[in-house]
């Protein structure tokens, strides 16, 4: 039951992320939530989640450095 709930929540958030890619919205947040839900049961999703977290950390540090000037 828990797996069905997490996978359906992951699918829903991925679909919302795809919709928000087309219309303005927080698509990246929905993709990360979807990957988080999938990462409990699928190791490939866990690797993509770690990759997205590292990329987001680097891009935020870059923007902080540029905006601090």
Automatic annotation (TrEMBL):
It holds the Pfam family PGPGW. It comes from Pseudoalteromonas lipolytica. InterPro entries: Uncharacterised_PGPGW_TM (IPR019099). It comes from the Bacteria. Keywords: Membrane, Plasmid, Transmembrane, Transmembrane helix. This is Transmembrane protein (PGPGW). The chain crosses the membrane at residues 27-44.
């Amino acid at each position: 039951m828990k797996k069905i709930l997490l996978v359906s929540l992951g699918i829903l958030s991925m679909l919302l992320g795809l919709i928000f890619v087309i219309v303005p919205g927080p698509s990246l947040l929905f993709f990360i939530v979807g990957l988080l839900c999938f990462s409990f049961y699928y190791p490939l999703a866990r690797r993509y989640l770690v990759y997205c977290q590292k990329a987001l950390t680097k891009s935020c540090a870059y923007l902080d450095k540029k905006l601090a000037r």
